[in-house]
Specification:
Layout: E1 3-8, H1 14-17, H2 19-22, E2 28-31, H3 47-57, E3 63-67, H4 68-73, H5 86-93, H6 95-102, E4 107-114, H7 130-148, H8 154-166, H9 169-194, E5 200-205, H10 213-227, E6 236-238, H11 243-255, E7 261-266, H12 283-293, E8 297-299, E9 307-312, H13 323-332, H14 336-348, E10 352-357, H15 366-374, E11 383-385, H16 390-407, H17 410-440, H18 456-472, H19 474-477, E12 480-486, E13 496-501
Helix pairs in contact: 5-9, 7-8, 7-10, 9-10, 11-16, 12-16, 17-18
């Protein structure tokens, strides 16, 4: 009988609700709450009903992968909007102790986010006032942090004075008080980590930068971890939507009593030193955390590895670069010829090859994908992702590679690869921008407000996506009979794809 793993996802978006179940089979059965129990974007899940579902289903599972943000706040976005007091939040976290009482043998893996502070003024995932004051709130945190460290430049000091005068007291108070409550709640969870209630835990940073509110919170969390000797139990790194996949990989690896060995290869000699967009450290520092958190071990000789992790990255990662900014880091300091050659070589040696496509922020690298298509490698590699942040991509490909390593599910693996190519490449790189202009704006809607979860905009997006994939990636399109497209948050940023395969 397949071992059951209970998964409480971060929220209802496809990356959290569906990706773990779309992974190749590894002789496990994942159970998760019904979709209608998980809330909807800014509408939080009913935390009492979530707790009830967990208690009713945890008795006979091998492992639990638990989003503390879903358990405590009712989801990721609700964690940035709630008005709950810390006593209420702490009481919701006590479900962890109930799980261990009901099923003391169950492995328990959890993650919880440090609240983000985006640099832009947009309120679709933040409090309403973020639409007007978001950029200023971000700068306030950046300047306050640098000032506390004695690093504030004279020009920044002048701008800090401007922002202080501009931000309403009630706005700043609301934002800061909620951060304090969330920080308290995270430290409370870490106390349970210190009691060994968790078998694995991740402190995930939901978007980050070297200075600001998130970095200040991270500093407090790090000091707590050091004081309580939790360095080996609670890694902190840029993470959010992929964390449950990382912990799923760990659960499967530990269930099978294996520690897969991973070798990391960068497309640029300087790739390891690049600090990705939306993150606060070099990618190699994050890679180390991702590998260990997934229950794997990094090795430094390719001959020793089970999984060859090929990281497509240039010598820099400019955000929204001009053509001139692309030339040296991508064309001069990166060799796609050698990168693809190494992929072929490791496949020939029988290694599991995972491609983390993080060359560009939030986009797949079409130059690489066209080469892989023309060389007939897209369905020969064993894992691919190129979506959103570099950490989102890394956690996805490491999980897929680990599950394939256990189950050797070739058909399931091929299906998830195709899903990624339709989503990360066909939709995000092309059909999303096309949908914004030709479907949404042309019909009186916007990229943040379409005409419904399954409306005209999603139908037009489907048509353009299928056309694009047929014309540009026929080897992949030939495997697909039809797709269904929906927009769970009624916006174009992410879509939900259900693919009907020809086989």
């Amino acid at each position: 009988m397949r071992k059951k793993i209970l998964l409480l996802p971060l929220d209802e978006r496809p990356c959290n609700f569906k990706f773990p179940l779309l992974m190749p089979s590894a002789d496990i059965r994942i159970i998760r709450p019904p979709r209608e129990l998980l809330g909807n974007k800014k509408l939080p899940a009913d935390c009492k009903e979530i707790a009830r579902w967990v208690i009713e289903n945890v008795r006979d599972v091998y492992a639990v992968v638990l989003s503390m943000d879903m358990l405590i706040y009712g989801g990721l976005v609700p964690s940035r909007l709630h008005f709950d007091d810390v006593r209420t939040l702490d009481e919701r976290a006590e479900i962890v102790r109930e799980i261990k009482k009901i099923n003391p043998d169950a492995k328990l893996y959890g993650f919880q986010t440090i609240m983000r502070c985006p640099f832009y003024s947009l309120s679709n995932e933040e409090p309403d006032y973020y639409a007007e004051y978001g950029a200023e709130i971000h700068l306030y945190g950046r300047y306050a942090h640098k000032q506390s460290l004695g690093l504030l430049a004279e020009s920044e000091e002048r701008d800090f004075a401007r922002i202080k005068a501009l931000l309403p007291d009630e706005v700043l108070r609301d934002f800061i008080e909620r951060r304090k409550a969330n920080l308290h709640t995270l430290l409370n969870t870490l106390r349970m980590v210190g009691e060994d209630l968790f078998d694995g835990f991740i402190v995930s940073q939901d978007d980050s930068a070297p200075y600001g509110f998130t970095a200040m919170d991270q500093s407090e969390v790090r000091e707590y971890i050091k004081r309580n000797k939790l360095q080996l139990k609670a890694p902190i790194y840029p993470s959010a939507d992929e964390a449950e996949m990382t912990l799923l990989a760990r659960a499967v690896n530990e269930l099978n009593r294996i520690v897969p060995k991973i070798y990391v290869y960068y497309a640029s000699a300087f790739g390891a030193t690049v600090t990705p967009a939306f993150e606060d450290r070099t990618i190699d520092a994050t890679v180390k955390c991702q590998i260990l958190s997934a229950g794997c071990q990094r090795v430094y000789e390719p001959s020793e590895c089970d999984i060859f992790l090929a990281v497509n990255i240039g010598a820099e990662m400019p955000y929204r670069p001009t053509k001139e900014q692309l030339y040296r880091p991508y064309d001069v300091e990166r060799s796609l010829a050698e990168f693809v050659s190494m992929i072929k070589y490791e496949l020939g040696r029988g290694k599991i090859v995972a491609v983390a496509d993080v060359a560009y922020p939030s986009n797949a690298d079409e130059e690489l994908l066209r080469i892989l298509h023309d060389e007939d490698l897209l369905l020969k590699i064993h894992a691919y992702a190129g979506w959103n942040t570099s950490s989102n991509t890394l956690g996805t490909v490491i999980c897929e590679a680990c599950l394939y390593n256990v189950g050797r599910d070739r058909l399931g693996n091929e299906h998830f690869l195709i899903h990624r190519y339709y989503d990360d490449v066909g939709y995000v790189n092309h059909a999303r921008a096309w949908t914004d202009v030709h479907a949404a704006l042309a019909n009186g809607y916007s990229e943040e407000c379409l005409d419904g979860e399954r409306g005209m905009c999603t139908e037009m997006a489907k048509g353009e996506l299928m056309r694009y994939m047929r014309e540009n990636y026929p080897r992949i399109a030939d495997r697909v009979e039809d797709i269904e497209v929906s927009s769970p948050w009624n916006r174009s940023f992410e879509m939900d794809f259900s693919i009907k395969y020809k086989d």
